[in-house]
Amino acid sequence: MNDMEQLTELEIAVFQLRMGFGTADRCVDWAVERLRLDQEGDDLDVVLLASARSRDEVLPLAEAIIERYRGAQRLSDQFLAGKYIVELRAAYLAGRESVASLDAILTRLYPVLGYPDWLVMLSRNCEYATDVADFEAPFEREFDYVAGLWSEAGSAAEFEQRYSRETSNGHDVG
């Protein structure tokens, strides 16, 4: 089990589960897929994760797997949140998320991440768009911008290099 992209999938699922946005099933499905493809490498935690059911069973097993294979190289919460933003954008475009549901998610993410600069305008525009129709277009432009940057970023540092607060500030009414 040395494919870091697959491990990233698990880290994103664990982040969402820890934050209360995801379900344990996504982590379990990840482990089941590793077993199906015979990629668990005799890792008992992967086997146990495949049969786990509750959040309380899943989190410690998934965290142990991530710690074992990533160690100090764990992905930052900023990066994991950014990849979650990409998923949320796709869900929004598909009609599975709404401005109101996104507002609840962003309102929760923003303080947990320490009020990152890149989330200021997205969170603000989303909140305002729940009540003021004129903010829907600026919200959608900012959402597209931020999600687009995160979709291409291989790290939080790479995202930060490309992100422009000036561009974000341009996604406003008027």
Task: Describe the structure in your own words.
This protein is mainly alpha-helical and 174 residues long. It has 2 domains: 70 residues, no CATH class; 93 residues, no CATH class. The chain is 72% helix and 0% strand. Helix 2 crosses helix 3 and helix 7 packs antiparallel against helix 8. The radius of gyration is 17 Å and the shape is elongated. The model has no long low-confidence stretch (mean pLDDT 94).
Question: Features of this protein?
Answer:
174 residues; mainly alpha; 2 domains
Rounded to an integer in angstroms, the radius of gyration calculated over CA atoms is 17 Å
Distance between the termini: 51 Å
- Number of separate structural domains: 2
Low-confidence stretches: none
Q: How large is the share of residues in beta strands?
A: under 5%
Quick synopsis:
The protein has 174 residues and is an all-alpha fold.
Secondary structure blueprint with pairings:
Elements: H1 4-19, H2 24-36, H3 44-51, H4 55-70, H5 77-93, H6 99-112, H7 117-129, H8 136-152, H9 156-162, H10 165-169
Helix pairs in contact: 1-2, 1-4, 1-5, 2-3, 3-4, 5-8, 6-7, 7-8
